[in-house]
């Protein structure tokens, strides 16, 4: 419930600032898209901490660049069936994955 409300607020924020052409982010994916991905796929508390740290780094003192979200996830009892893929999980160490959005599937 809370997760869906936060995602809806992020969606409204993205629509409004896209229409106004206000500013740009120093990172890819943008800070709002990064927040959306983290909130969709990670624990809310962990996502909030990561998003706050990302927003604090989004200034002239940091170089910016490409920074995909890294999430912790245990893959157990994987069922092999046809599904819609929204995110790719790229392994990064034990139980950690880089999250990359699949834009073609949406």
Outline the secondary-structure elements:
Blueprint: H1 2-20, E1 27-28, H2 31-41, H3 44-57, E2 65-66, E3 70-72, E4 87-91, E5 96-101
Helix pairs in contact: 1-2, 2-3
Structure notes:
The chain is α+β, with helices and mostly antiparallel strands. It has one domain. It is 42% helix and 17% strand. The chain is built from three helices and five strands, in the order αβααββββ. The chain has helices at 2-20, 31-41, 44-57; strands spanning 27-28, 65-66, 70-72, 87-91, 96-101. It has a three-stranded antiparallel sheet. β4 (87-91) and β5 form a beta hairpin. α1 packs antiparallel against α2 (31-41) and α2 (31-41) packs antiparallel against α3. The mean pLDDT is 86.
Features:
alpha+beta, 42% helix, globular
Largest sheet: 3 strands, antiparallel
In round numbers, the mean pLDDT is: 86
Largest sheet strand order:
3-5-4
Q: Spans of 5+ residues with little confidence (pLDDT < 50)?
A: none
* Number of discrete helical segments: 3
Percentage of β-strand residues: 15-25%
SSE succession: HEHHEEEE
Mind telling me the C-alpha Rg? 15 Å
Number of domains: 1
Helix content percent band? 40-55%
- Approximate shape: globular
Number of strands: 5
Structural class: alpha+beta
Distance between the termini: 22 Å
In short:
With 106 residues, the chain is α+β, with helices and mostly antiparallel strands. It contains three helices and five strands; from the N terminus they run H-E-H-H-E-E-E-E.
């Amino acid at each position: 419930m809370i997760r869906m409300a936060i995602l809806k607020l992020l969606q409204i924020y993205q629509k409004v600032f896209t229409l106004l052409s206000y500013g740009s982010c120093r990172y890819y994916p943008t800070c709002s898209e990064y927040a959306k991905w983290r909130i969709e796929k990670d624990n809310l508390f962990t996502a909030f901490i990561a998003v706050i740290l990302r927003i604090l780094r989004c200034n002239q003192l940091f170089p910016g660049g490409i920074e995909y979200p890294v999430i912790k996830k245990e893959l157990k009892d994987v069922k092999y069936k046809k599904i819609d893929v929204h995110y790719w999980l790229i392994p990064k160490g034990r139980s950690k994955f880089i999250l990359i959005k699949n834009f073609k599937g949406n």
